[in-house]
Design a protein that fits this description.
The chain is of the alpha/beta class. The chain contains six helices and five strands, in the order H-E-H-E-H-E-H-E-H-E-H. The chain has a single domain (about 35-160), classed as Toll/interleukin-1 receptor homology (TIR) domain (Rossmann fold), CATH 3.40.50.
Length: about 160
């Protein structure tokens, strides 16, 4: 049998291990980027693109992976379009509905809300300005989704709370 005596880790070893532990704790504290599907009326594309840009800005509290459509599906076949949208909603944990004066009239927004609920996804609604539009999609009212004013902190918190 060996007759050596174990002294323990050196001071350098301990410093290394402490730094490694700190790094792991910092990594664990990083917020999780949520997969978000954005539902909106086509007329609101400029505002939605602004929201997308805000989520990419490093100084913004809003952080998510955008799973919504950049452009409408190039098809007249509703079932094909629904299949493509459903796939994107399935890969998301939250559906963010951008509400404006145009939203209540969009058949697609209502269908996307209903599909999100069927797929057991969290749903939130975001509006720009001082007050929400007077007319909201019926599906949104029925599920009593949180209605959030467009602020970085408000949207970030609502996404985290709605994530499944």
């Amino acid at each position: 049998m060996g007759g050596g005596t174990w002294i323990g880790p050196s001071r350098d070893d301990l410093s290394y291990l402490e730094e490694l532990a700190r790094q792991r704790i910092r990594e664990g504290a990083q917020p999780t980027r949520r997969n978000v599907f954005i539902s909106f009326a086509t007329e609101d594309i400029k505002d939605v693109n602004m929201l997308r840009a805000q989520a990419k800005n490093e100084n913004s509290e809003i952080e998510f992976n955008d799973w919504s459509l950049r452009e409408p599906f190039d098809s007249k076949r509703a079932e094909y379009i629904k299949s493509g949208i459903k796939n994107r909603i399935e890969h998301s944990s939250v559906t963010l509905v951008y509400v404006s004066d145009h939203t209540a009239d969009s058949k697609w927004v209502s269908w996307e809300i209903e599909e999100s609920v069927k797929l057991d996804k969290g749903v939130i609604a975001v509006y720009k300005g001082d007050s929400p539009p007077k007319k909201l999609p019926k599906a949104l009212l029925r599920i009593k989704a949180p209605l959030i004013q467009w602020t970085s902190e408000g949207i970030a918190t609502a996404i985290d709370q709605a994530a499944v």
